[in-house]
Design brief:
heterodimer; A: mainly alpha; globular; B: alpha+beta; Ubiquitin-like (UB roll); Fumarate Reductase Iron-sulfur Protein, Chain B, domain 2; 2 domains; five-stranded mixed sheet; two-stranded antiparallel ribbon
C-alpha cells in the first residue's frame, strides 16, 4: 500500500505536464471499465443460466445510481480508447514525441466532441424512462435495487472465492519458486512481457470498432431502459420473430443471440470476439496497474498476477459458456416470473398480459 | 528583492528531526539572475550551517545537485531565481532514500546504471593503424543525444513508475544503454536489449513524459526509451531511429 499511497500523493504534488494527467486518467478509466466488465460478463451470462437473476440485475441497472454509472462508463471507454490511440502512435513513432502534449489535448477535445451527442442520446432514454414510469416512487426503486443486490450475494461470494484462489495460487507458486526479490546482476530477457506489450497495442486497436459498435447499439440506440420494453431487437431482422406481448430483458437477449444471418449467429460471434479481446486486454492492463504497486513484495506481486489470471479465466469460461449454450424457450417463462416479482416489489399491479402468460405457462 | 525558501529537511541522527519537516528561510538582497544553488549556499553560510546538500562543479556538468524545485526536478546550479519566482520550494528528489536534508542515497540509482553494461564492448582487433575505430557521421548522429547524460537522476526520480517500484530500471539507465545499443561499433547490443526486456526493464515505462522536460541536458528521454522498446520488439537496432525532422 505504501507504494500506491506514495505514488498517488507525489503524483498530485509533482508538477508534471499533461502527459502525467493523461496517464492518471488512462489508469482510472481502465480500472473502472475492467471492474464493470467483470460485473457485466457475469450478469449477462445469467440471462442464459439464471434468467430470474438477470431480470432483477437489469432492474437494478435501471436505478439512478447505475444510470450515473453508465454515463461514467461511456466516458471512461471513449477516453481510454482515444488516449490508447495516442499511446500507440508515440510507441511506434517515438520521433513524433514533441507533439504528445498537443495529442493529449486533442484526445480530450475529441472525447468531449464524441460524448456530446452520445450523452444526449442516452439522456433521452433516461428521460423517457422516468416520464413514462412515473408511477414508481423513489423509495420503491431503492427497494428493487437493494433486493436485487441481496439476491446477487452469490456473485460477491464468488468474488471472495476467486480472491482466495488467487492467494492460494500465489502462495503455492512462492513455495515452489521461493522468493526472488533480489534482481540478478544481469536479468533475464522476458519474451512474455514483450508479447504482452505488443498484444495490448494490437488488441486495443482491434477492439475499437467492436467496442464502439457495442456502445452505440446497447447504450445509445437501445439502452438498458429499452431492453425491458423493446418489441424488436436492433441489429436483427424482424423476420426472426418479434418479442412477445410482455417484453423482458431475457427475451431481448434470446432474440439477439438467436439471430442468424446466412447460418451465422452474428451477435454470438461478435460478442465472443469482444469477450476474448476485452477480457485479455482489460485484465492484462489490471495486472500492469497492480504489479506497479506490489513489486516491492514477491507475495503481493504474485497474488496480483494470480488474481488477474483467475478472474480473466473465470470470465472467459462463463462468458463463452453463455455464448455457446443452446438457448431454451423456458428461460423466458422464468424471466416472466421474475418480472412479476418486481412488479410486486414496486407495489404495482401485475399487468393482465403478464398474468395471462404466467397462468398459461405454469 | 527578498526571496522566501521553503526547504524539506530531515536529519536521521538528530532526535526530533528524524522525520521530514519544512523550514522557511528569507533571503534579502537577491538578484533575479542569482542561481538557486548560490542562494542555498547563502542559507548554509549565513543562516543555518546544518543545511546539507550535494554539489560539486556547480556548472551543470557533474550532475550532483538534482533536487525538486517548485515541484519539478531541476539542477539547482542551472536554475535562476527569476525562473522560479520569489517563493521557492525545495525538496530532495523522490524515490531514493534520503540521507540528510537534500542529499539522497544514489546507490540504487547507480545499481540500475551498472546493470545495463554502460561501457563500450568490442573484442575485434584494433584497426591496422592502431588508432580509433572509425564511424560515419550519420552513425554517430544516431546516439548523439544520449551521450549527453550526466547521471543526475532528474529523469528517473520524476517517473511515477519508479516512485511506485524501485526495481524499475528507470529512464537514466535506459538512456545510458541507448548510447551503446545504437553505437554501430559496439558488440553487446543484444545483451543490453535482453537485460532491458525483463519485466522491470523498459516495459514499466508508461510514456508519462515526466522525464523528458525534467532533463537538464534536454535529452529526448522518452523518445530514447521508445526506440529501445522498438529495438527489443523488432529484434534489431538498424532502422529503428528515424531522423528528427525538427532538427
Amino acid at each position: 500500500m505504501t507504494s500506491l499511497v506514495l505514488t498517488v500523493r507525489e503524483t498530485l504534488r509533482y508538477r508534471g505536464a499533461i502527459g502525467q494527467w493523461s496517464w492518471v486518467l488512462h489508469r482510472l478509466t481502465g480500472v473502472g471499465v475492467v471492474l464493470f466488465l467483470a460485473l457485466h460478463v457475469i450478469d449477462t451470462s445469467w440471462a442464459v443460466f439464471y434468467p430470474g437473476l438477470y431480470v432483477k440485475a437489469i432492474a437494478a441497472y435501471q436505478s439512478p445510481i447505475f444510470t450515473i454509472g453508465e454515463f461514467g462508463l461511456v466516458f471512461a471507454v471513449v477516453y481510454h480508447a482515444f488516449n490508447g490511440i495516442r499511446i500507440v502512435i508515440f510507441d511506434y513513432k517515438p520521433e513524433l514525441w514533441r507533439h504528445q502534449a498537443q495529442a493529449a489535448v486533442a484526445v480530450l477535445v475529441l472525447t468531449l466532441l464524441v460524448l456530446a451527442p452520445v450523452f444526449l442520446g442516452m439522456a433521452s432514454h433516461v428521460i423517457d424512462f422516468y416520464v413514462t414510469e412515473q408511477a414508481i416512487a423513489g423509495s420503491k426503486i431503492m427497494d428493487v435495487v437493494v433486493f436485487s443486490i441481496i439476491e446477487q450475494l452469490p456473485f460477491i461470494a464468488g468474488f471472495v472465492g476467486v480472491l482466495a484462489a488467487a492467494i492460494v495460487l500465489a502462495a503455492a507458486f512462492s513455495l515452489v519458486r521461493g522468493g526472488a526479490t533480489e534482481r540478478s546482476r544481469y536479468p533475464q530477457a522476458s519474451p512474455v512481457e514483450r508479447f504482452w506489450w505488443a498484444f495490448m497495442r494490437l488488441s486495443g486497436i482491434l477492439i475499437l470498432p467492436l467496442v464502439f459498435g457495442h456502445l452505440a447499439l446497447m447504450h445509445v440506440v437501445q439502452g438498458v431502459f429499452d431492453i425491458t420494453a423493446a418489441q424488436e431487437v436492433a441489429g436483427t431482422l424482424a423476420t426472426n420473430g418479434t418479442i412477445g406481448a410482455v417484453p423482458s430483458a431475457v427475451e431481448f437477449v434470446f432474440h439477439r443471440w438467436s439471430y442468424a444471418a446466412g447460418g451465422v449467429f452474428v451477435w454470438r460471434v461478435y460478442d465472443l470476439f469482444l469477450l476474448v479481446l476485452v477480457t485479455l486486454h482489460g485484465f492484462n492492463g489490471l495486472r500492469y496497474v497492480l504489479t506497479d504497486y506490489t513489486s516491492f513484495n514477491d507475495f503481493a506481486r504474485r497474488t496480483s498476477v494470480a488474481l488477474c489470471t483467475v478472474i480473466a479465466a473465470v470470465l472467459l469460461a462463463v462468458g463463452a459458456a453463455a455464448l455457446f449454450v443452446p438457448l431454451e424457450k423456458d428461460i423466458i417463462s422464468e424471466a416472466m416470473a421474475a418480472t412479476a416479482e418486481i412488479y410486486e416489489l414496486r407495489g404495482e399491479e401485475v399487468p393482465a398480459e403478464l398474468e395471462a402468460f404466467l397462468s398459461e405457462h405454469r | 528583492m527578498d526571496v522566501t525558501f521553503k526547504i524539506r529537511r530531515q536529519n536521521p541522527d538528530l532526535p526530533g528531526k528524524e522525520k521530514p519537516y519544512w523550514q522557511e528561510f528569507v533571503l534579502g538582497d537577491v538578484e533575479p539572475t542569482d542561481r538557486v544553488l548560490e542562494m542555498l549556499h547563502r542559507i548554509k553560510w549565513e543562516q543555518d550551517g546544518s543545511l546539507s546538500l550535494r554539489r560539486s562543479c556547480a556548472h551543470g556538468i557533474c550532475g550532483s545537485d538534482a533536487m525538486r524545485i517548485n515541484g519539478v526536478n531541476r539542477l539547482a546550479c542551472k536554475i535562476l531565481v527569476r525562473d522560479v519566482g520569489e517563493r521557492i520550494q525545495i525538496e530532495p528528489i523522490l524515490g531514493l532514500p534520503v540521507i540528510k536534508d537534500l542529499i539522497v542515497d544514489m546507490e540504487p540509482f547507480f545499481d540500475h546504471y551498472r546493470q545495463v553494461m554502460p561501457f563500450f564492448v568490442n573484442d575485434d582487433p584494433l584497426p591496422a593503424d592502431g588508432r580509433e575505430r572509425l564511424q560515419t557521421q550519420a552513425d554517430r548522429e544516431l546516439f548523439d543525444d544520449t551521450t549527453k547524460c550526466i547521471l543526475c537522476a532528474c529523469c528517473t526520480t520524476s517517473c511515477p513508475s519508479f516512485w511506485a517500484n524501485g526495481h524499475y530500471v528507470g529512464p537514466a539507465a535506459i538512456v545510458q544503454a541507448h548510447r551503446f545499443i545504437f553505437d554501430t561499433r559496439d558488440q553487446a547490443g543484444k545483451e543490453r536489449l535482453d537485460i532491458l526486456s525483463e519485466p522491470n526493464g523498459v516495459w514499466r515505462c508508461r510514456t508519462i513524459f515526466n522525464c523528458t522536460p525534467a532533463c537538464p541536458r534536454e535529452i529526448e528521454v522518452t523518445k530514447a526509451i521508445g526506440e529501445v522498446k522498438l529495438a527489443i520488439r523488432k529484434g534489431k537496432t538498424i532502422g529503428i531511429i528515424q531522423p528528427d525532422v525538427s532538427h
